[in-house]
TrEMBL record:
Pfam families: Acyl-CoA_dh_1, Acyl-CoA_dh_M, Acyl-CoA_dh_N. InterPro entries: ACX4-like, Acyl-CoA_DH_CS, Acyl-CoA_Oxase/DH_mid-dom, Acyl-CoA_Oxase/DH_mid-dom_sf, AcylCo_DH-like_C, AcylCo_DH/oxidase_C, AcylCoA_DH/ox_N, AcylCoA_DH/ox_N_sf. Residues 141-233 form the Acyl-CoA oxidase/dehydrogenase middle domain. Residues 25-136 form the Acyl-CoA dehydrogenase/oxidase N-terminal domain. Keywords: FAD, Flavoprotein, Oxidoreductase. One of its GO terms (molecular function) is acyl-CoA dehydrogenase activity. Belongs to the acyl-CoA dehydrogenase family. GO terms for biological process: fatty acid beta-oxidation. This is Acyl-CoA dehydrogenase. Residues 251-393 form the Acyl-CoA dehydrogenase/oxidase C-terminal domain. The keyword Flavoprotein applies. Its cofactor is FAD. It comes from the Bacteria.
């Protein structure tokens, strides 16, 4: 696909090489629709609710009107052919350029929850749950992380599932589960006590024994409704067990795809922070001139742009590997580890350009600085993703 000068000039400030122009026209229109939604209707809601640590319920209505949910899944949502992985990644970036919490709310629903059902469910389950989720009439959540387990979840999952006839009984606890306080469907992962394999279950809101409690006191992702869930004798019919999930190997297929989405989020944080810093550098005056005219400020901006552009190139190629069906765990692991590390540098440099104003919520950059720490940690820490890549390139496992 040829990039025209007009497309290059139409790029956002962070898209220095014009990567958006790689999208076909139909998909770029969807991206621009998301950009307008985030700029005009979502951004005015962000700072007040971030400060209060509350999820604005009107967000669900705004996303419902937008028709952006369900795009990656052929036959579900407004974009009937499945959207490309490049569009899905750029949508995650676009939403995160405005706010990482809002992007995470949407990503948990449209990515983790819907992809788990689409990938792990049979056709009857997909047809039963996904249409309402694509319309955002029903909201999803994804419950894997536990209070005492994170990186060791593959072998250390403590939540159990015990079969009794055509019913499963779930017991245990989950933590950091986005959307869980209000979600209609929560995909809960539990270890079958009979065969010791991890299985997935869709638990509906209000099921007896299912008790989500909002986590308070967060210093990042303050708009996301993260919950700690207690499961006490939660009874789920066999019909609500994801039929194509028979072990953690099947779950890993889901995590491989969603990990790349987090890398796109990290790029979105970088893009948003850089654009805020660039705008501030053009407007803020010291010693009688804009601070953007000072060499040290330009140095921070150019290093930030270099990180962004390098990360963008990596993720575009990752999307191509996904579309071709040939991407592997180590591909998404390297992207998550590398891009989140570069993100940490960019948000620090961007906040530095703001000086003391950088800690004021009114300038937005403080949100990006705080939220970057959450993205750096979830969907596999840098260390765990490094070991995945290290095993791939050396043939030796360094996991202990």
């Amino acid at each position: 696909m040829t990039t025209t000068m007009e497309q290059l000039e139409d790029r956002t400030a962070a898209d220095f090489y014009g990567y958006e122009a790689l999208l076909p026209d139909e998909e770029r229109k969807i991206l621009l629709k998301a950009r307008a939604l985030m700029r005009d209707r979502v951004k005015p809601l962000v700072n007040e609710n971030w400060a209060k640590g509350e999820f604005p319920e009107e967000l669900i209505g705004l996303f419902r009107e937008s028709g952006l949910a369900g795009l990656p899944y052929e036959g579900y949502g407004e974009h009937r052919p499945a959207a490309s992985n490049l569009l899905s990644g750029l949508l995650a970036l676009e939403m995160t350029r405005t706010d990482a919490s809002v992007s995470t709310f949407f990503g948990v629903h449209n990515g983790l929850a819907m992809y788990s059902i689409h990938s792990g469910g049979d056709q009857e389950q997909r047809d039963r749950w996904l249409p309402a989720m694509a319309a955002m009439d029903k909201i999803g959540a994804f419950a894997m992380t536990e209070p005492l387990g994170g990186s060791d979840v593959a072998g250390g999952m403590r939540t159990t599932a015990r079969r009794e006839g055509d019913t499963w009984v779930l017991d245990g606890a989950k933590k950091w589960i986005g959307n869980a306080t209000f979600a209609d469907y929560v995909v809960v992962w539990a270890r079958d006590v009979d065969d010791n394999h991890v299985k997935g279950f869709v638990v509906e809101k209000g099921t007896p024994g299912f008790a989500p409690e909002k986590i308070e006191g967060k210093t990042a992702f303050r708009i996301v409704e993260n919950a700690e869930i207690t499961l006490t004798g939660v009874r789920v019919p066999e019909a609500d067990r994801l039929q194509n999930i028979n072990s953690f190997r099947d779950v890993a297929e889901i995590l491989r795809a969603t990990r790349s989405g987090v890398a796109w989020q990290a790029l979105g944080v970088m893009a948003g922070a850089y654009e805020l810093a660039l705008g501030y550098a053009r407007e803020r005056r010291q010693f009688g001139r804009p601070i953007g005219g000072f060499q040290l400020v330009q140095d921070l901006l150019v290093k930030s742009l270099g990180n962004i552009t390098a990360s963008w190139g990596m993720l575009v190629q990752l999307a191509r590997l996904q579309d071709a069906g040939i991407f592997r765990d180590e591909h998404s692991a390297l992207a998550k580890a590398f891009v989140t590390s570069r993100m940490r540098e960019v948000v620090a440099w961007s906040r530095e350009i703001f000086g003391g104003n950088g800690i004021l919520l009114e300038h937005d950059i403080a949100r990006f600085f705080a939220d970057a720490e959450a993205i750096y940690s979830f969907e596999g820490t840098r260390e765990m993703n490094t070991l995945i890549v290290g095993k791939s390139i050396t043939g030796e496992s360094a996991f202990v």
